[in-house]
């Protein structure tokens, strides 16, 4: 019923192959549930666009191994098949010295394959390979004998002669070829400084999806793939009933803010929140009767001019937040709360001015998993609470936080020094850390409670 699309390394082409598979399955009338290994936000947007179903992240570093298993089984109900897109290379993850719970690198695609006991299909970039493809495939195949290995997909194949050499090499090791994809330049998805350009900014995406579906129909070995995806009966998930609506929380969702884990939004609804989606970019006013704000990550630096020009919304937000409305802001959301965003050219654009600092874009990429300990209270955390998050940004705060929210310690890449992170105000949680709440229910529970308190309190100036 399910399989994992893995790469022998990053940039082997697994995202294109995954989207081609999803598009072809959808074209055949199948209900497909997709998943993405790791903390990524943008690839899941493309999955959802193709399948029409929210993609779910499987990340045991941000959650836990048991949560990954539960999330996977829960979302198999009511679908015909499931496809998981891996992260980086098959065995790329946290070093075993960081997490010792599994014999393969923690959080890797191989880790997910072993946790879920489903077969892996390896995408191999063949653009500079011929006979050596057999050694690569055989090495991956037997590196972990407990991993189910279904076969390989040959990507970026050149001429017919090139294909023949690859097939001959793999025949010698008796490895099934589940797809053959030629080198092609007619299907492209643009990217920028943090990865692919999100779906909402691509007006020609329907045409690209159609091309991907055709590519999948012609490129995959369907006789080999379909048995791996054959439907199996799945029990209805046991979900807690949603609480009666108690608060209205405004979710900033547009081209500037769109990095959200769907599980986080589901948890807010289950706890009694009505989610009101709106746009700080294009709306002329903030939503009515709101008791909380949630600003996810995204690309506010790309749309800084438009955000700065929306004066009415900025003034209303500033007034509401400064008079006590609980606000949760991650990464791009944190940047929006600053006095200004300075883009890559140095041009500065005024933002909300809630935090006395400027978000300055730069060349240095900050990337990695973090373990953070809360230093003080916010609408989401209490002093001493430990969370795990992920950072991925090219901006820095100048000056740095005078009231830091966390002491943050890198999990990977490994470092020894901790550092102050996030900005705390009584009614504001603002941090570069992206958090998945699946194994930290205290966060949405506390946020809901703070919003309830707001709903029952008169507006007062701080």
Automatic annotation (TrEMBL):
<keyword id="KW-0547">Nucleotide-binding</keyword>
<dbReference type="InterPro" id="IPR029062">
    <property type="entry name" value="Class_I_gatase-like"/>
</dbReference>
<dbReference type="InterPro" id="IPR011698">
    <property type="entry name" value="GATase_3"/>
</dbReference>
<comment type="similarity">
    <text>Belongs to the CobB/CbiA family.</text>
</comment>
<dbReference type="InterPro" id="IPR004484">
    <property type="entry name" value="CbiA/CobB_synth"/>
</dbReference>
<dbReference type="InterPro" id="IPR027417">
    <property type="entry name" value="P-loop_NTPase"/>
</dbReference>
<dbReference type="GO" id="GO:0009236">
    <property type="term" value="P:cobalamin biosynthetic process"/>
</dbReference>
<dbReference type="GO" id="GO:0005524">
    <property type="term" value="F:ATP binding"/>
</dbReference>
<keyword id="KW-0067">ATP-binding</keyword>
<dbReference type="Pfam" id="PF07685">
    <property type="entry name" value="GATase_3"/>
</dbReference>
<keyword id="KW-0460">Magnesium</keyword>
<keyword id="KW-0436">Ligase</keyword>
<dbReference type="GO" id="GO:0042242">
    <property type="term" value="F:cobyrinic acid a,c-diamide synthase activity"/>
</dbReference>
<feature type="site" description="Increases nucleophilicity of active site Cys">
    <location>
        <position position="434"/>
    </location>
</feature>
<comment type="pathway">
    <text>Cofactor biosynthesis; adenosylcobalamin biosynthesis; cob(II)yrinate a,c-diamide from sirohydrochlorin (anaerobic route): step 10/10.</text>
</comment>
<dbReference type="InterPro" id="IPR002586">
    <property type="entry name" value="CobQ/CobB/MinD/ParA_Nub-bd_dom"/>
</dbReference>
<comment type="function">
    <text>Catalyzes the ATP-dependent amidation of the two carboxylate groups at positions a and c of cobyrinate, using either L-glutamine or ammonia as the nitrogen source.</text>
</comment>
<feature type="domain" description="CobQ/CobB/MinD/ParA nucleotide binding">
    <location>
        <begin position="3"/>
        <end position="194"/>
    </location>
</feature>
<dbReference type="Pfam" id="PF01656">
    <property type="entry name" value="CbiA"/>
</dbReference>
<keyword id="KW-0315">Glutamine amidotransferase</keyword>
<keyword id="KW-0169">Cobalamin biosynthesis</keyword>
<protein>
    <recommendedName>
        <fullName>Cobyrinate a,c-diamide synthase</fullName>
        <ecNumber>6.3.5.11</ecNumber>
    </recommendedName>
</protein>
<feature type="active site" description="Nucleophile">
    <location>
        <position position="331"/>
    </location>
</feature>
<feature type="domain" description="CobB/CobQ-like glutamine amidotransferase">
    <location>
        <begin position="248"/>
        <end position="438"/>
    </location>
</feature>
């Amino acid at each position: 019923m399910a399989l994992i699309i893995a790469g022998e390394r990053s940039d082997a082409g697994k995202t294109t192959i995954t989207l081609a598979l999803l598009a072809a399955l959808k074209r055949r009338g199948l209900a497909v549930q997709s998943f993405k290994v790791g903390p990524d936000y943008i690839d899941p947007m493309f999955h959802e666009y193709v399948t029409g179903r929210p993609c779910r992240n499987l990340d045991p570093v941000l959650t836990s191994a048991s949560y990954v298993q539960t999330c996977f089984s829960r979302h198999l109900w009511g679908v015909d098949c499931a496809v998981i897109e891996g992260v980086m290379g098959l065995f790329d993850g946290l070093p075993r010295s960081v997490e010792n719970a599994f014999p393969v690198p923690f959080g890797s695609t191989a880790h997910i394959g072993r946790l879920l006991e489903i077969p892996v299909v390896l995408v191999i970039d063949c653009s500079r390979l011929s006979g050596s493809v057999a050694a690569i495939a055989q090495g991956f195949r037997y590196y972990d004998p407990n991993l189910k290995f279904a076969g390989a997909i040959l990507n970026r194949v050149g001429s017919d002669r090139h294909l023949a050499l690859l097939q001959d090499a793999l025949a010698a090791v008796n490895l099934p070829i589940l797809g053959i994809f030629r080198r092609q330049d007619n299907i492209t998805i643009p990217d920028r400084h943090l990865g692919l350009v999100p779906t909402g900014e691509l007006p020609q995406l329907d045409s690209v999806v159609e091309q991907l579906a055709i590519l999948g129909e012609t490129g995959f070995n369907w006789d080999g793939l379909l048995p791996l995806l054959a439907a199996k009966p799945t029990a209805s998930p046991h979900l807690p009933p949603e609480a009666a609506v108690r608060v209205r929380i405004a979710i900033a969702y547009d081209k500037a803010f769109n990095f959200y884990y769907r599980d986080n939004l589901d948890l807010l609804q289950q706890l009694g929140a009505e989610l009101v989606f709106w746009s700080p970019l294009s709306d002329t006013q903030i939503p009515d009767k709101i008791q909380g704000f949630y600003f996810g990550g995204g690309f506010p630096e790309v749309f800084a001019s438009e955000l700065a020009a929306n004066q009415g919304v900025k003034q209303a937000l500033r007034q509401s937040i400064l008079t006590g409305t609980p606000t949760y802001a991650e990464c791009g959301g944190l940047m929006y709360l600053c006095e200004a965003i300075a883009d890559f050219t140095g041009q500065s654009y005024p933002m909300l001015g809630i935090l006395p600092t400027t978000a300055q874009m730069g060349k240095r990429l900050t990337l990695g998993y973090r373990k953070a300990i809360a230093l003080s209270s916010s609408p989401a955390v209490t002093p001493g609470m430990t969370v795990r998050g992920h950072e991925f940004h090219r901006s820095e705060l100048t000056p740095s936080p005078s009231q830091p929210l966390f002491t943050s310690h890198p999990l990977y890449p490994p470092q020894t020094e901790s550092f102050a992170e996030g900005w705390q105000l009584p009614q504001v949680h603002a941090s570069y850390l992206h958090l998945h709440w699946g194994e930290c229910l205290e966060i949405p529970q506390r946020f809901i409670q703070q919003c309830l308190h707001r709903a029952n309190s008169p507006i007062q100036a701080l």
